[in-house]
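Quick illustration, no need to memorize.
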Amino acid sequence: MMVNLLILKKKISRSVTNNVSILLFGHKYDHDDPAAIAISASNAEIASSFNFAGVMAFLPWLSSLVFKFELFNSNRLKKGFKAVDSHIQNEIVKHQEKNSQEVVDYIDGYLAEKKSREERNQIDDNFSIDILKRLSIFN
């Protein structure tokens, strides 16, 4: 019974990864795609590392201590975020290289709006590639 739950959990995780991928990146992955497997594994690491999040919601000052002293598996959390961040950065680069005006997904829309603001000289520090990466991680 436990094995069936683990298999179901993996399948659901990969399905969620694909749904988010379609919205963010404009494409989905095969269920056995190494990138999809890696993203799902990183998301699982991040989720399992957030056991302390409830406590920090009520004690926000505690978060600096958690990361400073690497409590609550913060290394796993950092590793998971780094892997997801790297994947998102690769996707952003692919979107920038295609240099298309067509908006298919979230990244296309964000990059189009960023370019439009730059052309109108409305440069905004809160509208950058770093912000795009952060928004993409939490979507």
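The CA atoms of residues 34 and 66 lie 31 Å apart.
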